[in-house]
Design goal:
By secondary structure, the protein is α+β, with helices and mostly antiparallel strands. Helices cover 54% and strands 14% of the residues. It has a four-stranded antiparallel β-sheet. Strand 2 and strand 3 form a beta hairpin.
């Protein structure tokens, strides 16, 4: 077998593995829903879209966090900002392709204008902020929108977030703030405290046809 044939074989194997992983994840959630419905039900089990979307959001967040921590370790917070500026959307798009879902992060106070929440997303962000003001936990929800199942999953600030999204001269170092202003002159994504809603993961899934 020549080198060209070897490369083609490897690519085919990788594609099949990716498809199998996606199908396995979906089947897991279908089987979970079936078990919840009890035995003896011969109807086609329903997909738990909310749980499936959460799995996708969590997996994507983990990939971004791993890369972000690697960038901080390599060159500090300013280097990580530059890394996010050029790689965050690319990483999310790659995950969307691998997981066969629409994936985006949105906010009412975006750093990148491309992450501005739309009217529907802004309305749910406000609902969650009101809940948190009353001391309630922010919850995810799933809606059917234009034939797609669309999930909204809250993004809440933690201590690591505040290095780039906290308050100037309190959480954000001067050099970091200078880099933010350089890379994002229209930035709105600072001034947060811990445990505040910073935005949403929005996961779009194909609706199962019955």
């Amino acid at each position: 077998m020549n080198i060209k044939q070897v490369i083609i074989s490897i690519l085919v194997a990788l594609m099949l593995n990716s498809c199998n992983n996606s199908n396995t994840r979906k089947q897991d959630y279908i089987e979970d829903a079936s078990l919840q419905g009890g035995q003896g039900n011969t109807a086609k089990p329903a997909t738990d879209y909310l749980a499936l979307g959460k799995s996708i959001a969590t997996e994507t967040q983990a990939v971004l966090a791993k890369n972000l921590m690697g960038a901080i370790k390599k060159g500090g917070t300013e280097y990580a900002l530059a890394f996010c500026n050029t790689n965050a959307i690319t990483l999310s798009d790659s995950m969307a392709h691998a997981l066969n879902a629409g994936i985006k992060r949105v906010s009412d106070k975006p750093r990148n204008a491309g992450n501005q929440a739309n009217e529907i997303e802004l309305a749910y962000i406000q609902v969650l902020k009101d809940k948190m003001t009353r001391g309630e936990q922010p919850e995810a929800k799933m809606n059917e929108i234009e034939g797609k199942m669309v999930g909204f999953y809250p993004i809440v600030t933690n201590q690591m977030c505040l290095q780039c999204h906290g308050k100037a001269e309190v959480n954000i170092k001067a050099a970091t703030l200078q880099k933010i202003n350089e890379l994002y002159p229209a930035d709105k994504a600072t001034g947060y405290a811990g445990n505040e809603l910073r935005g949403l993961w929005v996961i779009e899934l194909d609706r199962e046809l019955n």
